Amino acid sequence: MTKMRKAVTATVVAALTTFGVAACGGDTGDSGGGGGTGGGEINVSMTSFPDYVDPQLSYTLEGWEVLYNTYTPLLTYKHAKGEEGTQVVPGLAEAMPDISPDGKTYKLKLRKNMKYSDGTPIKASDFTYAIQRLFKADSGGSVFYEDIVGAKEYADDKAPTISGIVTDDNTGDITISLKDANGTFTELLGLMFAAPVPPTTTLDKDTTNNPPPSSGPFMISKVEAPQTLTMERNPNFKTVKDAGATDVADAGVDKITVTQNKSNSAQVTGVEQNTIDFMTDPPDADRLAEVKSKFASRFRMEDSINTYYFWMNNQTAPFNDVRVRQAINYAVDPEALNRVFGGRMHPTQQILPPGMPGYEEYKPYPYDMEKAKALIAEANPTDRNITVWTDDEPDRKRIGEYYHDLLTQLGFNATLKVIAGDVYFTTIGNQSTPDLDTGFGDWFQDFPHPDDFFRPLLNGASILPTNGNNYSRANYPDLDAKMNELRTKQLSDPGVKEQYAALDKAYMERAAWAPYGNEEFTTFLSERMDFDKSYHHLLFNQDYSSFALK
Amino acid sequence: MTGSVGEIEAPGIPPVPAGVAPDAVRGRSPWYLAWVRLRRNRVALGFGVLFILIVLVCLAAPLWADHVAHTGPDANHITDKVLIDGQEEYVVSPDGTPIGPGLHGRYLLGADQNGRDVMVRLLYGGRTSIFIGVAAALVTTVLAVLVGLLCGYYRGWIDAILSRIMDVVWAFPVLLLGIALGTTLALGGLKIGGLVISGDSVWIPIMIIGLVYVPYMARPIRGEILALREKEFVEAAVAQGKGPIRIMVSELLPNVVSTIIVFFTLNIANNMLLESSLSFLGAGVRPPSASWGTMIADGYQNIYTAPHLTIVPGAMIVLTVLALNVFGDGLRDALDPRAKIRLEH
What we know:
The complex is a heterodimer of chains A (550) and B (345). Chain A has 550 residues and is an alpha+beta fold. Chain A contains 16 helices and 21 strands. In chain A, the strands form 6 sheets. Chain A has a 6-stranded mixed β-sheet. In chain A, helix 15 (477-487) runs antiparallel to helix 16 (496-509). Chain B has 345 residues and is mainly alpha-helical. Chain B is built from 12 helices and 4 strands, in the order αααββαααββαααααα. Chain B has helices at residues 30-40, 42-59, 61-69, 118-154, 156-171, 174-188, 203-212, 214-228, 232-239, 244-280, 292-299, 308-335; strands at 81-84, 87-90, 190-192, 195-197. Chain B has a two-stranded antiparallel sheet with strand order 1-2. A two-stranded antiparallel sheet of chain B has the order 3-4. The A-B interface holds A 265, 284-290, 292, 333, 335-336, 338-343, 392, 394, 397-398, 400-402, 404-406, 408, 415-420, 427 and B 74-76, 78-79, 92-97, 113-114, 183, 186-187, 198-200, 282, 286-288, 298, 301-306.
């Protein structure tokens, strides 16, 4: 999720077309389901406080984890563990959208007689207001909704409202018109950005210190950013459940206090000693083995949909030679990098991560240093001065040091640049930054669609002067065309997932990246928590509705 | 022998006290007297020798790396194995825990999380830390002496301007100023006219540390020069027609050399501490280069499973700084027993 912000580029949405209902998940394994009628108070610790306590503005893992069970969009993601959690289901809307044959019109109907936590009725026009807030408050998520007719005019103050959203508060009808068909729009409607808020919410400002009333199982009762926030059971959530929102889980505890704690080690000790009930971040590698061995009954590793990779500038020497890029792929040892992560990394050599539709496991470049050296000798690049970029978070700094040494072994004159994590991606995403040769990259899904991995990170149109995410400067017209063709189809269409898998292989044959792993997250709970009920959600990290005391 | 009234003593022959044979009297320079005093201070001398030993051991880093450890300071060996008691063990275990210290040759002080030999990094890191300490002390000394001489000799508006600049630098906490400069210069490096230093160069922390300590040394020197400026020998030099530069270099500077030497020694210790702090905070020596500060920064993440990664470089910093401080104090006492020189910040 650290990379979610990076998904905010004009190109991401400008190119999202085609319609269709999401066809994610499919795993029929045990679902979490969450919910419960228990009670009690628990406390949660995070290393970083949510960026915003505002459904339209928040764009970090911590923020979405808190807001997932506070604000309910028209559609939402199923409260379930594993791939089942990537399935889009009706939230405040009565049913999945009715999509026109040309894929440009979405019709939904709001459930009746629902109320926010403060007693204000939930109206269909609140959805329009939420989308308007995205544009007026300069939300990072606004680009996802620019395909709505009239959105740009509204954003540019040329129209008083968004003409492409028509609502009827009496009937609850909501009609959304898109400029082009967009195969990912159903998933986008399930994101926090599109959660309705009442019109009393400030239109163009961050609501962190005074969050809008909630429509989920919890409400935010107190915020002291960036130290602590309190979530309490929403007294009016019954109106949402009574309206038929069966897929929105109920709260299992009465109150959750979320506190920022910058010391990962102190958090681990807190959970071990039962003074903290859950820590959002995984224990550092230093404590991981201890936690695994001593607290196995309340600790487990959790899958997450992400890819860690080394980007290489495909357009400039020496990485404009495919043999050099392939050599790097052969030289990178995913097992070594897994150890840098304390064993929390699933080794990989492809773009799409496990759990993402279109993922088909394959290993095109098994670790072979001799072969890598032979390829470099064959390519014999004249420019061997390379700048390696990474950020200053401990794991990433070590990854950068590993990569620097690897390049040195391959005969390059490498220079390592370690810069602050909060400016790292804006720095390498700015084309005017000198010496952008290669470096650390990662990507966490925004929504469960393979296009979310290919388009922002590898499409030629994503090479932007600033805030770009295509750090490799990958620009292959034939693969871009394939990507554009696939976006006109639904994932549920026959052969689409297979074609995304083929696209993955096509990029890796050209060694556009050097991917090496998918990071795993963790669930680590205090002794008093019901460990079996709590689960990790693939999109929103821990599902707070699944928290329950024993 | 005493001369009678009206007789003039031969020039250059000092009077000899009664009962003392002339051959028993020898001229002793202030430096000789200082050495005698220093030699009597066994503790200071011992720590001075310790510092020299540390320097020599660190200078021998390539020998250890080539002939004992068979690896360089930046070489990663994450998935390598090493033979311990006849059994092969991973340098870094699958759960990320590095091998600890032990008499297994290559990894005498264990490995870090990237499988790098801690002993090799410690020696190379020592070279870096000591080099930065000494080089930054030289930068500080040159600039501080220059400022002190100009301010103290000329006084007036030159003194006012330079002193106010020093005040501005002094107004910032050393560490805060170091972090600000280090972070800023890390990305783009330093470019002043023809002087270009890349962001990852070790000269960046040297320049930063060298600059931030200038006021701490320049002020006392200025004070001494101000006092010396009023002495008769300066008036005599002026009367002889000596120019300002000649007076500063040949008359004033020799009189503050002892102060400079003491400051220089103590400054090295402070510089090493500041370098460690800056490197620990990511604003000093750039990775993957080793310094004792970067080693602590790398190691503290593993304080539970591999405390040696932090303790070993930390102990070296303590030992070296202690040695320099005790030796510096001894040197101060030896050069000028009445002096009250303190490097405060």
